[in-house]
């Protein structure tokens, strides 16, 4: 077969752990390099703050409202000048906009876990599900709903909405970018009228190696995903070095795992938002 086909690697094996226990090896899904998805912001995107880009406005058919889109870029530690870092946070938390949150029945989300970095499909799905649970537990509120895996090609919505919340891996055009979260909603006007209506996430599949266990020289997927899901529920980035232990601190480093668990500011912030 040609290298244009999706290569599905299903490994069924049993490993012996260091304590003599049997460890099940989970299936992995890998993409042929020529089939790797690509992602870049549209030329119309306008940078409005550090690592934050406005995507303009679009009509949301589900809510029947005109909404705004924003792309939040997660970069490797040191990729931007520290002198440019800002924070609008109080006590180490901040929001995309005050009172901009999910309302009504939680929406479902889908993930295509295919990647070239040997992350197992079950691991990707379970890590995202667990990350959502962390934010929902802190908020004491069911925010993002249930997820499902798909083999369909997913495309993050940078111009218009498709009423799907999508997660996938892609070759990101900026080599300093670890992941991108796109959120659509109403961020201005009366705070009581603000709300979130759609989110998408794209994780790098070209520059960075991913780890399931915080390995040196690799990005820890749980560490990054927990941060990205914070944006999905309405949390903003922090760029004050005093807030560097928060999950929502805007930069990440290889081998970092401290953002897997929400810190005090993260918990206070999402609880206040919801």
Features:
alpha/beta; Collagenase (Catalytic Domain); ten-stranded mixed beta sheet; two-stranded antiparallel ribbon; 15% helix; 28% strand; disordered N terminus
What's the quick description here?
This protein is α/β, with parallel strands linked by helices.
Folded structure, characterized:
The chain has 3 helices and 16 strands. The protein has 274 residues and is an alpha/beta fold. It has a single domain, classed as Collagenase (Catalytic Domain). A hairpin with a 2-residue loop joins β6 (46-49) and β7 (52-60). It is globular, with a radius of gyration of 18 Å.
List the helices and strands and how they pair.
Blueprint: E1 8-9, E2 14-16, E3 22-24, E4 28-29, E5 38-39, E6 46-49, E7 52-60, E8 65-76, E9 109-112, H1 121-139, E10 147-149, E11 166-172, E12 177-186, E13 195-204, E14 210-211, E15 219-220, H2 221-233, E16 251-252, H3 264-273
Parallel strand pairs: 5-11, 8-16, 9-10, 9-11, 11-13, 14-15
Antiparallel strand pairs: 1-4, 2-3, 6-7, 7-8, 8-12, 12-13
């Amino acid at each position: 077969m040609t290298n244009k086909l999706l290569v599905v690697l299903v490994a069924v094996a049993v490993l012996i752990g260091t304590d003599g226990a049997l460890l099940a090896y989970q299936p992995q899904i890998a993409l042929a390099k020529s089939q790797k998805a690509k992602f870049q912001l549209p030329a119309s995107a306008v940078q409005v703050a550090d690592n934050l880009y406005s995507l303009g406005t679009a009509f949301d058919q589900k809510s029947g409202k005109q909404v705004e889109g924003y792309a939040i870029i997660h970069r490797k530690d040191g990729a931007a000048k520290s002198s440019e870092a800002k924070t609008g946070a109080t006590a180490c938390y901040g929001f995309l906009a005050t009172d901009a949150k999910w309302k009504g029945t939680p929406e479902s989300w889908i993930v295509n876990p295919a990647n070239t970095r040997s992350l197992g499909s079950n691991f990707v799905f379970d890590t995202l599900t667990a990350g959502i649970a962390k934010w929902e537990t802190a908020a004491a509120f069911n925010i993002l709903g249930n997820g499902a895996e798909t083999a369909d090609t997913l495309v993050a919505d940078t111009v218009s909405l498709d009423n799907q919340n999508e997660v996938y891996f892609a070759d990101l055009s900026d080599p300093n970018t670890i992941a991108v979260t796109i959120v659509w909603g109403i961020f201005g006007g009366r705070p009581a009228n603000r709300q979130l209506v759609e989110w998408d996430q794209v994780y790098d599949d070209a520059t960075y190696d991913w780890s399931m266990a915080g390995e040196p020289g690799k990005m820890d997927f749980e560490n990054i995903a927990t941060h990205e899901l914070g944006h999905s529920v309405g949390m903003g980035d922090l760029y004050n070095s005093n807030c560097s232990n928060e999950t929502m601190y805007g930069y990440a480093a290889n081998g970092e795992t401290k953002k897997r668990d929400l810190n005090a500011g993260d918990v206070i912030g999402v609880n206040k938002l919801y």
